[in-house]
Write a structure and sequence with these properties.
The chain is built from three helices and five strands, in the order αββαββαβ. The chain is of the alpha+beta class and 189 residues long. It has a domain of 117 residues.
Length: 189
């Protein structure tokens, strides 16, 4: 730099404190221009009124009834599923199993005292596994081998049809057992 008199003037920074002060001034000026960080809005309240029923969507589910001779008959049922659960494979499987149970009770192959089986779907090793859980039968269950075989085949065929399962496991009260109700062996897949 030169002065008015023609002499040259050198500017020397005496300490780094001047640089730090300049940087802090720059940060403060930026903060003043852009403003303080804004508070994030709180998430919306997701309070569900227990008195209000959930919105149901009517969905057609497919099940398969296999008779004592091994002949398959497809069945269809319209069921009301919660709006968001209609695409869930586990929910669709449970609905198809409930419809299958109702059909088998009418045919006399499923004991009316036993509830509907539950089911869920798992994706494992690029395969879709359906797990069907059935309640244990009472000791005095009046069902023969042919009816129990038809139930096992119907459960497997329904799981394959309802959710395009590659493999099906049947459990009894959450445990793997060698047979469903003591008459027909459960095959491993």
């Amino acid at each position: 730099m030169t002065r008015a008199g023609g002499r040259r003037c050198e500017v020397r920074w005496a300490s780094p404190q001047l640089l730090i002060a300049g940087f802090l001034f720059l940060v403060a000026a930026t903060y003043a221009v852009t403003g303080a960080p804004r508070a994030v809005d709180p998430p919306p309240s997701l309070v569900v009124d227990p008195a209000a029923p959930p919105a149901l969507r009517e969905v057609e589910v497919r099940y398969v009834v296999v008779d004592a001779r091994g002949l398959e008959r497809p069945g269809y049922a319209d069921v009301g599923l919660p709006d968001g659960a209609a695409a869930d494979p586990g929910t669709r499987l449970a609905a198809a199993l409930a419809a299958l149970r109702d059909d088998l009770v009418e045919a006399g192959a499923w004991p009316a005292s036993l509830p509907s089986p539950s089911g869920y779907v798992v994706e494992l090793d690029r395969r879709r596994w359906a797990v069907v859980d059935v309640a244990a039968a009472p000791a005095n269950l009046a069902i023969d081998v042919a009816d129990e075989l038809a139930v096992v085949r119907s459960l497997v065929a329904t799981a394959r049809a309802a959710v395009a399962a590659d493999a099906v496991r049947i459990t009894v009260e959450g445990e793997e057992r060698p047979s469903l109700w003591g008459r027909v062996a459960l095959a491993d897949e």
